[in-house]
Design goal:
By secondary structure, the protein is an alpha+beta fold. It has one helix and four strands.
């Protein structure tokens, strides 16, 4: 059984990912179901997404202070 995760692939822009377990683990390597591109482990993807989210929020917080 494979589970699909909705993440954007930087190579083909598909959002369907797959891995070979019925539940997500931090050590799972996520690959694109469409093109086979390796996005890394779930932990590294979450870390990248958290950093991007923080960068998006910092400028808006600075504007509110002015």
């Amino acid at each position: 059984m494979t589970v699909q995760v909705e993440l954007p692939c930087p190579k083909c822009k598909s959002t369907k990912m797959k891995f070979e377990r019925p539940e997500i683990r931090e050590t799972d390597i996520i690959t694109c179901a469409a093109c086979g591109h390796n996005l890394g482990t779930m932990a590294s993807i979450r870390e990248k997404m958290n950093k991007a989210y923080q960068r998006l929020n910092q400028p808006s917080a600075a504007r509110k202070l002015q």
